[in-house]
Write a structure and sequence with these properties.
Length: 688
């Protein structure tokens, strides 16, 4: 994001806003709760927490900016929630809802009516895959893309901070433009990612919401005191004309959104545009996309440009109404090729939605002459990240490298191995070139038909701590790590990020927590593949999975084991011992179950392991870390009774006493070597 101008600095520079560590669901719900009066909800993954937050706040008596507690109503389906929003809006109330995937599709008939009647509202969507050949609870843009013809404006957030900011902007812009908005962000990757962000204050909200526009909305309410015809059935003699009569509202909407963004920048210093360009003025190859993937591209573009490349990024924020003129003026003069990325697939179409809009913009430019190019850039399309498939810096580099080709592959995919229609690009993950399954030796990497030098490790960010924590669903590991991220965010100057991976089986399956923190803003919207710290909360994982695969050289390994300091090494599989020796890993152990049991916590080891993490990493001084952990325990378990608090506090106090470091031998001596072959001493199938 561009730095704010000098004009803005005097307004926000000395204003102190609270810094909070939350996810995008909470960020969006926080805004929605404070600027609405009626909130209709129905739970659907991954949007459910937005409704849960509003319901909890309403039960606690949390008021909106007008001093009233919003009425939160849970319906029997998303169709009912949308109908309730529609009805509340017609009564002059300010209303909103939250949803995703099939839930959004169930809202569609009401969205057509809400938009057709020019009724301001915002529906917050944690974008999720729509079930086709299979159901998936994970994120892509197939649900929001199905809404393009409803008439809803569509505003996309790429990060947790943007989820709060653009939620605010959408609620302000909808009141002025009268166009209802869908404000969306990527399901799980953004909705459930914990980030340290600056919180918008109630004064900011009051400054952004114009009371005159609220009064105008009230004046349009259906009431016997002011009769008005609405919701009619029309015949061919007038329907077409009436439909076209809304053009002026849609034509004005992009300008209103930009003005609202500018007002927001004056308040906060965070400046947004309908299309945000990031990169050098002389960039030759440009990636165009929206959503969390834009954060990954942003990070990668910076690294590639530092290495002498000339590449850039255009972040699409206001997707509907699509302002073609604004988009054309965002492209640098130097650009000779663009890759447009869609996080959805539209089977049978000439191209995915964003790609087709970009092509239309270029065609309209040829006719209307919005701007002149010395040589018009060529445009290719790609698909990525369906159902939360990983999208990483090496994939971004593969896309930008493809743009160098004389005849680049169009309608490509990246991140998978398409061995049926051969659409996929080859990318390099740091040790091997892969198309998600097919691996080639490192060295020269074939990318779309020509040899490229292997890229450097684009996923390593100097100065950023990266930690992986392996736990069992429902064992408390994820909750403890969420608390850890909040503790780091609130007690240090570091930026912090937490992302938690668990499959749809949830309880009983393995969970992986990815924690990052460092002095600079973290844009890494992808999983950690080179960890400074690895914690294994279940000993059996090391016997079944390659837990240390992503450990960097010199990393720290903490394991919960039933063994003492003298026995742990001998009971590790030979493969694990060799990895520890080869990578020079420091090894720590604790019998977390013993500590938990003695502390009165049964078999819940999450607090024990959390204390060990802080003790080993020394992010905070020991006393401050213990105090912060106990404060977090009070917030998390305070309502569950004094006994629960005492047992957790005892676990905190006992954990460090039972933590031990193992002196790592110089050779493998595992008792389990025969059951767990050492790398290189058995066929690949056996080892992996």
């Amino acid at each position: 994001m561009d730095a704010p101008s000098e004009h803005y600095e005097s307004n926000y520079k000395h204003m102190k806003r609270p810094l909070v560590t939350i996810d995008a669901n909470e960020a969006a719900a926080y805004i929605a709760h404070h600027v609405n009066e009626v909130i209709a909800i129905y739970p659907i993954t991954p949007a459910s927490p937005m409704g849960e937050w509003s319901d909890a706040w309403a039960m606690a008596g949390k008021k909106n900016i007008w001093g009233t507690v919003p009425e939160v109503i849970e319906l029997q389906s998303e169709a009912g929630a949308a109908g309730t929003v529609h009805g509340a809006l017609q009564s002059g109330a300010l209303s909103t809802s939250f949803t995703a995937s099939q839930g959004l599709l169930l809202m569609m008939p009401n969205l057509y009516k809400i938009a057709g009647e020019l009724t301001p509202t915002v529906i917050h969507v944690s974008a999720r895959t729509v079930a086709g050949h299979a159901l998936s609870i994970f994120g892509d843009h197939s649900d929001v893309m199905a809404m393009r013809m409803t008439g809803m404006a569509m505003l996309c957030s790429n990060s947790v901070q943007e989820a709060m900011d653009l939620a605010m902007i959408s609620h302000a812009a909808t009141l002025e433009s009268r166009i209802p908005f869908i404000h969306f962000f990527d399901g799980f990757r953004t909705s459930h990612e914990e980030q340290k962000i600056e919180q918008i204050t109630l004064d900011d909200m009051r400054a952004m919401i114009d009371d005159d526009h609220v009064i105008a909305h009230r004046s349009r309410a259906m009431t016997p005191d002011n009769p008005f015809i609405r919701g009619t059935a029309q015949n061919p003699d007038v329907f077409f004309q009436s439909k076209e009569a809304s053009n002026e509202f849609y034509n004005a909407c992009p300008g209103i959104v930009q003005q609202t963004m500018d007002r927001f920048a004056e308040l906060t210093g965070r400046a947004y545009k309908l299309f945000d360009y990031h990169g050098p003025d002389d960039a030759e190859r440009i990636v165009v996309l929206m959503g969390s993937g834009a954060e990954t591209v942003h990070e990668t573009v910076d690294k590639l440009n530092a290495a002498g490349e000339k590449v850039g990024l255009i972040k699409v924020r206001l997707y509907r109404p699509f302002d073609m003129k604004a988009f054309m003026h965002t492209i640098p003069d130097s650009a000779h090729s663009l890759s447009v990325l869609d996080r959805t697939k539209e089977p049978g179409s000439a191209g995915e939605p964003l790609y087709q809009d970009i092509l239309t913009a270029f065609q309209e430019n040829r006719v209307e002459g919005f701007r002149k190019f010395d040589a018009e850039p060529r445009v290719i399309a790609g698909r990525y990240g369906l159902s939360s498939k990983e999208f990483t810096p090496p994939m971004v580099k593969a896309i930008l490298d493809e743009l160098k080709e004389i005849k680049p592959k169009n309608h490509f995919t990246v991140g998978i191995n398409d061995d049926v229609t051969h659409t996929s690009l080859v990318y390099f993950d740091g040790t091997r070139s892969i198309t998600n399954g097919n691996e080639k030796p490192a060295g020269k990497v074939a990318v779309s038909g020509s040899d490229k030098e292997n890229p450097s490790n684009l996923t390593r960010n100097e100065g950023v701590f990266q930690g992986l924590f392996y736990g069992l669903g429902a064992d408390g590991t994820v909750s403890a790590n969420k608390n850890s991220i909040k503790i780091i965010g609130e007690n240090t100057d570091f930026y912090a990020q937490g992302y938690f991976v668990y499959d749809s089986k949830k309880s009983g399956s393995m969970t992986t927590s990815h924690l990052r923190f460092g002095p600079d803003q973290i844009r890494s919207a992808y999983l950690i593949d080179e960890a400074d710290f690895i914690a294994c909360h279940q000993f059996r994982f090391v016997e079944r999975m390659d837990i240390l695969r992503y450990a960097r050289e010199g990393a720290t390994f903490l394991i919960n084991a039933f063994y003492g300091a003298d026995d742990l090494w001998e009971n590790l599989p030979g493969k694990v011992q060799k990895q520890i020796i080869d990578k020079k890993i420091r090894l720590f152990g604790i019998d977390g179950y013993k500590v938990a049991k003695e502390s009165g916590m049964g078999n819940r080891i999450n607090t024990v392991m959390q204390v060990c993490f802080f003790a080993i990493s020394e992010i905070l001084p020991k006393e401050k870390a213990v105090e912060a952990i106990k404060d977090a325990i009070k917030k998390t378990y305070g309502q569950k009774g004094e006994a629960i608090l005492k047992s957790n506090f005892a676990a905190v106090d006992n954990a460090v006493e039972h933590l031990y470091e193992v002196k790592v031998p110089t050779e493998v001596t595992s008792k389990k070597a025969m059951l767990n072959p050492i790398i290189g001493e058995a066929p690949e199938f056996v080892n992996d």
